[in-house]
Amino acid sequence: MLSLCEKGQSHRPPSFLSIFCYTVSMQKMGQKIMPKILDGRAISSKIAEQLTQQILVCKTKPTLVIIQIGNNEESNTYIKHKRIFAEKIGAIVKYVHYDEDVSEESVVVDIETYNTDTSIHGIIVQLPIPKNLSESRILESIDPRKDIDGLTSASAMHLFNSEKGFVSCATKAVLVLLDNEQIDVTGKKVVIVGHSALVGKPTALALINRNATVTVCHAFTKNLDEETKRADILITAVGKPKLITKNFVSPGQIVIDIGITVLSVEEDGVKKKKVVGDVDYEAVKDIVAAITPVPGGIGPLTIACLFESLLEVYENLGRL
Ligand code: NAP
């Protein structure tokens, strides 16, 4: 099923691919082989080092506005990590929090102020926002030149037309991970579970633009396990822990888990927060060829990609 090891790929540098092909053949012979753990945290650290060097020579600090409305648990986790990352690389995060009952108008007015403020280079609205507010109106009020999470319709059109532009940072993280591991998706069967405008759809478009054969699944997909088992590359972005069990995967697959859920657990009598993905990692990791862990996979890479895009706007500021 897996065609990453086909002829024509052998000229590529061996690193991941040779390990991967070996893993696939051994798995096909029924041998239990350790999967490659796709370490997003390591790539994120490398990006952080590069960004730190870039920011050191900046006259002013690249500044990101993060808008949060309400108090979603997963959003709190993302924002905390974005702020830690910013501090590490020397960027500034201006965190703006609104209560759930804020009016749409006042959020839009504030965003318009950030649009014209030349000391601000990126604006993101941490999703989800409360259902009583129009997500599209709020997102559309962001100046596309500062839309570093690629959520305005202008950014979506760039992606649709295969033009350069900002994409969802989770999508960008998937592309960076694939590039880093030298995984060419041309002609590969990619199955994406989740079709949100934030993750599933932009990731599908970005991979179609790279000539993958993409199937997008969602809550109404029938026989999800049959779809996911057919994938060369399985990407999940749902937010349901253990949705993808060992019965949903096949030997030789690459599994990229974008899902993040924060669970409250009790370990040794101590209440803790535990971050998990959509994939039953322990059960799946011994079947597939490569897998991203949660935490430590796409999450940290998404944050690094966000700040990479922030620097891009900063460097283009002269043209704003
Ligand atoms: P979302 O808007 O809630 O979308 C979830 C998607 O999953 C929807 O398309 C939904 O389909 C689908 N779905 C729900 N139940 C399903 C099921 N049983 N089987 C198949 N599909 C199902 O969430 P999102 O914003 O896309 O985020 C998805 C996950 O990624 C979340 O866990 C989020 O925290 C995480 N995330 C991670 C990062 C990162 O950096 N790693 C970044 C962004 C988001 P329907 O619309 O048909 O219900």
Structural class: alpha/beta
Strand content: 15-25%
What is the approximate shape?
Answer: globular
Q: Count every helix, treating DSSP H or I runs of 4 or more residues as helices.
A: 11
Q: How much helicity do the residues have?
A: 25-40%
The description of the largest β-sheet is: 6 strands, parallel
Keywords for this structure?
320 residues, alpha/beta, six-stranded parallel beta sheet, 39% helix, disordered N terminus, binds NADP nicotinamide-adenine-dinucleotide phosphate
Tell me about this structure.
The strands form three sheets. The chain has a six-stranded parallel sheet with strand order 1-11-8-7-5-6. A three-stranded parallel sheet has the order 3-2-4, with helices on both faces. The chain has a two-stranded antiparallel ribbon with strand order 9-10. It is 39% helix and 17% strand. A hairpin with a 2-residue loop joins strand 9 and strand 10 (270-276). It has eleven helices and eleven strands. With 320 residues, it is of the alpha/beta class. The chain has helices at 15-28, 40-56, 73-89, 104-116, 135-140, 153-160, 169-180, 200-208, 224-229, 281-284, 298-315; strands spanning 36-37, 63-69, 92-98, 122-125, 189-193, 213-217, 233-236, 254-257, 261-267, 270-276, 290-291. The structure holds NADP nicotinamide-adenine-dinucleotide phosphate. Residues 74, 127, 170, 193-196, 198-200, 217-221, 224, 237-240, 243, 258-261, 298-299, 302 line the site of NADP nicotinamide-adenine-dinucleotide phosphate (NAP). NADP nicotinamide-adenine-dinucleotide phosphate (NAP) is lined by residues 74, 127, 170, 193-196, 198-200, 217-221, 224, 237-240, 243, 258-261, 298-299, 302.
